[in-house]
Amino acid sequence: MPSDAQLPGVSAVLFDSGGVLMQPLGGRWNPRADFEPTVLAHSPGITDGQFAEAVAAGDRFLDAATDTPPYDDYHRILLDHLGIEGTPGLLAELSREVDPATVLEVFPDVLGTLDELGRRGVRMAVVSDAWPELPALHDRLGLGGYFEAYAISAVLGCNKPDPRMYHHASEALGLAPAQCLFLDDDPELVAAAIALGYEGLAVSRPGAPAGGAAPAGVASIGSLSELLELF
């Protein structure tokens, strides 16, 4: 991890959300963990193998998108693959609000770190490839009130590493890129931020799925609490 001398003039942290602030119970982000039981209530008999193939089709759909598509469009892809009509009622059920604690959890190092960063006057924002409901979801998970701005792919119409994602957050804070530290669990997205003039660190928690080798010049931290050494 870099020493604080390597972050001159940095006064804000831009956080990715998934993999940095929170993670899904069961390890899968999309579809939500209640997808299978909801579908089975409408169409009993769908097998685990069919669900796996539908989830893979949904993954391909998201990977091919240049931004984050509407959640209903994503669900229609999965339902079409299962041979099920995406009726308005079923789509509404799949997108209904649920207790976040049943599908997501905040990493244990997050709330204490955010509290202390706020106490020290560090400004904070979120830069995430996510659906528009992310701020409300954060509120329900106890993350409300920490972030001054959100750069959300489904709102901006682009995904990281598009420069607009990073710039939207720093400009909302009224800060130059060099005044912001960007955190993501994808080192390639951190490298993209660094190329735009931001400071950057990859978040690599013990036990997280191993990705490829980090690009040259991308340092990492194993816990958000390590940020407190930098501010």
Key descriptive features of the protein:
8 strands, 231 residues, 2 domains, 9 helices, alpha/beta, Rossmann fold, 6-stranded parallel β-sheet, 14% strand
Short structural description:
By secondary structure, the protein is of the alpha/beta class.
What does this structure look like?
The protein is of the alpha/beta class and 231 residues long. The protein has two domains: 4-25 and 102-229, 3-Layer(aba) Sandwich (Rossmann fold); 35-97. The protein is built from nine helices and eight strands. The strands form two sheets. Strands 5-4-1-6-7-8 form a six-stranded parallel sheet. Helix 9 (187-195) links the parallel strand 6 (180-184) and strand 7 (199-203). The longest helix has 17 residues, at 48-64. The mean pLDDT is 92.
Q: What is the CATH architecture assignment of the largest domain?
A: 3-Layer(aba) Sandwich
CATH C-level name of the largest domain: Alpha Beta
Rg = 19 Å
Distance between the termini: 13 Å
Largest sheet: 6 strands, parallel
Which regions have little confidence, pLDDT < 50, spanning 5+ residues?
none
Return the string of H and E elements. Answer: EEHHHHEHEHEHHEHEE
Oligomeric state of the chains present here: single chain
Beta strand count: 8
Strand order of the largest sheet: 5-4-1-6-7-8
Share of helical residues? 25-40%
Class based on secondary structure composition and strand pairing: alpha/beta
* Count of helix runs: 9
Mean pLDDT: 92
